[in-house]
Amino acid sequence: MDLKEAVKKIHWLGHDAIRIDGSTVVLIDPFQISVTKPADLIMVSHDHYDHNSPEDVAKIQKKDSVIVTDAASAKKLKGEIKVVAPGATLSVKGVEIEVGPAYNTNKDFHPKAAGMLSFVFKLDGVRYYHAGDTDFIPEMKQLDVDIAFLPVSGTYVMTADEAVQAAKAINPKIAIPMHYGAIVGSEDDARKFKNALEGQIEVVILQKET
Known about the structure:
By secondary structure, the protein is an alpha/beta fold.
């Protein structure tokens, strides 16, 4: 798929919530969402309330939706759930998923030992990376992805400047900033991220869907 066409199918629902309307509808980390289009595959990166929100999952869950998440998050969710940890690979509804880590290196909100998740997934020929709540971690240097969703707010995750370094290490064809505008961070962080990568990596700032 042409990546410009792929971007048209990506919807930012605020914070870390991303929906991709591919041949399989994928939604990651729904939180305080007002757009409730049903999802085939729901991925939840970790058990913090702004990522693992059972009431938001219920808004977009169908009878045959599959949830992919970690053990801590699974305890709060209902339906068909596949419990995974970093290093897992699986295929769900035609989507190939590689589960990676997400953790802090210079703060303690997301310790590596907690086993919080990031996701690389292939949908309609495009490889996406949803970083979850993370700092710039060494594992990012091994990634091979087309589109990367990266947190930029600082405080609980990497700052815009740190996200620039992460983007350069990952070197996706397109980077999309997230984790701002809800709890911490603002569009200024997203713009700072984009401006710093001008001429190096294409950055698309999505408008929140309401």
